[in-house]
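Listing 4. Sequential folding, example run.
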Amino acid sequence: MAKSLGYDAGHFSFNTEGGRCEVCKGEGFQKFEMYFFEDLFIKCEECGGKRYKREVLDVTYNGKNIHEVLELTIDDALEFFADTPSVTRKLRLMSSVGLGYLKLGQPATTLSGGEAQRLKICAELGVANRTDYLYILDEPTVGLHADDVKKLIRVLNNLVDAGNTVMLVEHNLDVIKCADWIIDLGPEGGEQGGEIIAEGTPEAITKQKRSYTGLYLRHVNL
């Protein structure tokens, strides 16, 4: 149907002119600046928050229009696009790092720091034969369920197994215990920290009396 109407991929992008609602520029809402208060964001009256022109929303794929597709979570989209390997391959990467709850059309500005980092990991995993790279991540497990932390660890191990180096700033013991090498900073936080208290394998850190990390690692199955 889209081809018969002369629509191309650009008509289904909310970043370019063509099929998007031009009143809200594909945002789905309009911003009203309030000089003495926080800005107001009101659902676009033209498109009803659906981000596209009515004629584009009339085009459907497997019973859903572009707005309905973008409202799918990544996990739901895996089922919806089950017969399209080129799509599910990328979606499966995102699900594997615990991002299955995000919506396909979710604005990047609404992502947390940890979510944004995990999306970048997915982008790197999607590049064939990438090796000899250094990845530095800051608390990528923040907000993750224990099962999703396990998924993330598997993904990070895949990066390492491919010949890359992964450096994490992390407090999650389930991640720390899997490290090849730990650098423990302290003795306290903030101005009372900044000193290398201990470094070595997780087993070696447990034997360091000054290390708080070692103290807690002793109660974890290594």
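-- end of first protein; second protein begins --
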Amino acid sequence: MSLWDSFLPARDNAADGAVLTGTARSGGIFTGTARVLDDPDAFGTFEPGDILVAPITTPAFTPLFALASGVVTDIGGILSHSSIVAREYGIPAVLGTGTATRRIRSGDTITVDGDHGRVLLTDAASTATPEAERSRTPWVVAGLAAAAVAGIVLLRRGRFGR
């Protein structure tokens, strides 16, 4: 396990089965339509009430949280963007599943159990197979860069570290 794994945990869920496990980061249970978003260019496909499924979220994803009924990510921990914003909006979130964006397709019906850190896959999701292996490296870099910028801003404003 690398140093980064402790900050951005991701499980290695099996390639089959009806339940993904992750870390419960915002309580509640919701069943609805999944919308898998790999990058901001796809934000226009997101509909109010969809469950946001992404490799990781950055501040660019924040407006979608106001529309989302739940959040599922491949990577994420207690202080990740997804975790904090989902709690602020009061929507269930399961983070660090490791394979959500490969196992879930846009349009699938899923249940996000933010109380127990589980995502129940229904419809075609339980048998979905990856079209192509997705790399999480760009999202990790983007998330770390956003955190670094936020830290610098806080330091310059004298609100951090004193």
